[in-house]
Amino acid sequence: MKILEQTHDQFADAFLRRYGKGTHYSTPVYRHVMQTGGTGLDRLPIFSQMPELAGRLQRDLVLDAGPVVNQVEDHGVIKFVTRLADGLEIESVVIPMFRRFTLCVSSQVGCRMGCRFCRTGKMGLMRHLTTAEIVGQVFAARHRLGVDVRNVVFMGMGEPLDNLESVLPAIRVLGDQRGLDIARRHMTVSTAGLIDGIDRLARIDGAPVNLAISLNAPNDAIRSRLMPVNRAMPMADLQAALRRYPLSRKGAIFVEYVLIEGINDQQAHAQALARYLAPLNAKLNLIPYNPAPGSDLKAPSPSTYERFLGWLVAERVFVRRRGEKGGRIMAACGQLGGRECCASGTCL
Predict the structure, then answer these.
(1) Known catalytic membership, residue 333
(2) Cα–Cα 20 to 30 A to 167, which of 193, 194, 196, 232?
(3) Across the strands, what pairs with 189?
(4) How do beta strands 319-321 and 282-288 pair?
(5) What are the domain boundaries of the chain?
(6) Which one is catalytic: 118, 333, 341, 347?
(7) CATH number corresponding to 68-329
């Protein structure tokens, strides 16, 4: 019984088939495990007269989140490493934001997108994560680290839309009100721009999740240099996909722009970026590049960052500052992974 890959209804169906018991039994079990992290089912009142069933359930339930084998913290940002069943490792990051904690989750071990500013590009794709391994990161943050995570961003290792077979079910499991209960308005999926994946995500049943685009360039020439995916899916096609993505009543597309010294930091770039965003209901996150070991790219100076920000404001772009969080523990944007882990990715 792999409970971390099942919604309440899926678990109830499996419970009925295996044990012949209905939701009077399965619902308390699901809530107990998902909301408290506990498997001490013998303490549930419904099993007071059925210790044998409680014991059987105890043996059958699989919480395959994997052990947390390393944890580091810097100014409230926590990066933790989970070791998977096959020995590979993934990183997740807890970020304190206002009154809520956000968890940046991974969707793959490695990534095949090859973006130059991200350490994942140097690792390649090792494998997709399962639904349970994705949900398990939230489960671990809540019940092993004791952090009341309420926002989830798919911005960790890997390209989420390259693994929708696991990501879409994970969204459903995370949002189940009888379980982890994370509202879809508090979930964000980030992509390098896989257009077919954007369209599939748009068709998910129920409320849409937030969509973030890692754009990072004002034109195809620069974006193709930074992000190989742009050669197959250029910016005009990406813009069309963003325009047809369904948004909630107060929703917007989040656009991520990693500012790199001497690459995408000129006034003409800001003006071209403003023109590209004009037809979209978009909010731009301006992120200074976080250097990774061995990279030939340079972080922008504070003056470069402020100047570019000012140009965007002058063009009436809705732009938000994004300062570095977790840089000293290699938990900032583009820094996940390395020798201590099998993969890397972007985390905002």
Answers:
(1) yes
(2) 232
(3) 154, 211
(4) parallel
(5) 3-60, 68-329
(6) 333
(7) 3.20.20.70
